[in-house]
Design brief:
Layout (H helix, E strand, L loop, with lengths): L2 H23 L3 H14 L4 H21 L4 H22 L4 H26 L4 H13 L3 H14 L4 H13 L3 H15 L11 H12 L6 H12 L11 H20 L5 H20 L4 H14 L1 H8 L1
Helix pairs in contact: 1-2, 1-5, 2-3, 3-4, 4-5, 5-6, 6-7, 7-8, 8-9, 9-11, 10-11, 11-13, 12-13, 13-14, 14-15
Length: 317
Amino acid sequence: MSQDHVREDEEQVQSLLDQSYDLLKQRRISEAAELIQRALSIDFDNQEVVTSLKYVNFWKDRQATADAIPEQFERAEYLLGQWRLFHSFVDRVGNPSETCLYAIRHHVFGQALEHYLKLYDDSGNSDSELLTRLGRCYKGMGEYDRALEYLEQASVGRRDDPQTVAELADCYALVNEVQKSKAFFREAFFIGAQAIDLQALESEMINRLVDKVRELGLESPALEEWIPVYGVLFGVFTVKRELRSIEYGKLKQSIYALEREYSDRRQPDVVLQARLFNRYFWLIDHYVNTQEDQSKIDEVLLKIRSIDSKIYHQYTN
């Protein structure tokens, strides 16, 4: 085969792929699949074509299921639930096609957004749960300013919801408001680390931290609990705030309960350790902010040292 012919085939394959990605963004998945299939018939060894076809076939099957769901909210929830499964599928396939992934993001999050917006327009209310979902969809499509509008509104009514606060922190990171992002991430993991869907977080800052903690050999559920601990130790969660008196009281109660639970265990529990360290760090920050006597800080540091001297040295050095 001549070089000119090879070049023509390459150009034709790329043209078909580009057209298919545009169709995906328009949520015309069956037409997109047909074009990728045509590209495969021209070059069945092209890695991007093979990978893109696998991605599209994954969503074609699920699109049929989604279309059969009558309620808009359930349809949107199904799509976003499948997106979480898609993460694992992409890892199994390997050699990710970033351009195709971007187009599929628009296909999935764009559909979910349409369903949620219809509910939002029909209801005329500002339900914080729905606002969070709208923000998540805009974030998924890369429209971070729009995402922030909805997530900031949602956070007013969901200050105690770890996922909403984490989504807001993630979005602040994506628009380069780093200080706000650090503060809200630390808050989210303090409120409830187990309730945070790590796969929903996209910013480089948090994903690098997650990867570094995972490299230490930690997996769920311990992984989520150690993220805020190493967030402090690695100098990521550096933005701190003073606790209100009621928060200080709850923190002390929480520490007391965790200490009792930890001491009752026959074997060291890494999840309880992480929860204790996280709360000890918050307590020390509170003492520093309120200019408490150094002896109170030293007392907490001794507790950290008695549980894990390595963490103590990382924290104090």
